[in-house]
Amino acid sequence: AGASGDAGTAGGSGAAGSAGGAGAAGTGGLAGASGAAGASGTGGASGTGGTGGTGGTGGTGGTGGITGLLTCGTSSCDLPQACCVAHDIQASYPFNVDHFSCYDPGAGSCTCSGFGCSTSTYQCAGASDCPGAELCCGDWGGNKYTKIYCSASCTSGMQQRRVICDPTDTKPCPGSRTCKPSQTLPGYYYCD
Questions:
Q1: Cβ proximity of 96 and 87 under 8 Å
Q2: Distance CA 84, CA 6 (A)
Q3: What is the dihedral of CA 166, 106, 100, 142, to 10 degrees?
Q4: What are phi and psi of 127, to 5 degrees?
Q5: Which residues have a Cβ under 8 Å from the Cβ of 84 and sit 6 or more positions away?
Q6: Distance set, CA 178 to CA 158, 162, 192 (Å)
Q7: Which terminus of the chain, N or C, has fewer Cβ atoms within 10 Å?
Q8: pLDDT tens per residue across span 90-117
Q9: Cis omega (within 30 of 0) on the bond before 94?
Q10: What's the rounded Cα separation, in Å, for the pair 140 and 128?
Q11: For residue 36, what are the CA distances in angstroms to 29, 30, 41, 166?
């Protein structure tokens, strides 16, 4: 048998391999398409209008004023004017003189300025010249009427008061009294 051969020398280490190159960057993806706009919503139904209010009731017409003529001396006044009588005392005959004139009681007054002068006012000549159920009353001063006016009553405890009446009225006097002409005031009547 042949002799054993010598052991072989160990092989040298292999050289280190080179590092691998970096991979190339990937390409960016494409942007997605923008979505379509949503459809616009349907508008809500319009509301029903409210019911109109009920019209107010018209007011009642006013009552017409008293109209007609009121005797004033030798002339007359258009109601609601009144008659103003100025009683003048004079130094010679005739000693007592009455001056008659018409005036508006709502805008003026019955006045006089002579010596011993006094006035009387006449606003009616019967119940038909007064509003509603009022009577025409006359305050009697002994020899003349100091005032003739409309009132709910002609009774008085202190002063003599008469009901002045118009004989052409359907019922000129209350109760059973009669309408007589005045002796001191021509054109006027009183209940007796």
A1: yes
A2: 180
A3: 60
A4: -60, -25
A5: 72, 100, 101, 102, 103, 110, 111, 119, 120, 121
A6: 24, 12, 6
A7: N
A8: 666 667 778 899 999 888 889 888 777 8
A9: yes
A10: 21
A11: 21, 18, 15, 102
Q: What is the pLDDT of residues 130-157, one digit of tens each?
A: 999 999 999 988 788 899 999 999 987 6
- Report pLDDT for 157: 66
Structure-token pair, residue 6: 């010598």
Could you write out the three-class secondary structure of 143-189? CCEEEEEEECCCCCCCCCEEEEECCCCCCCCCCCCCEEECCCCCCCE
Distance CA 96, CA 112 (A): 14
pTM equals: 0.61
Token pair, residue 153, equals: 């009553």
- pLDDT score at 136: 96
Q: Cis peptide leading into 167, omega within 30 of 0?
A: no
**pLDDT tens digit string along 51-79?**
554 544 444 433 446 778 999 989 999 99
- Please give the pLDDT value at position 39: 46
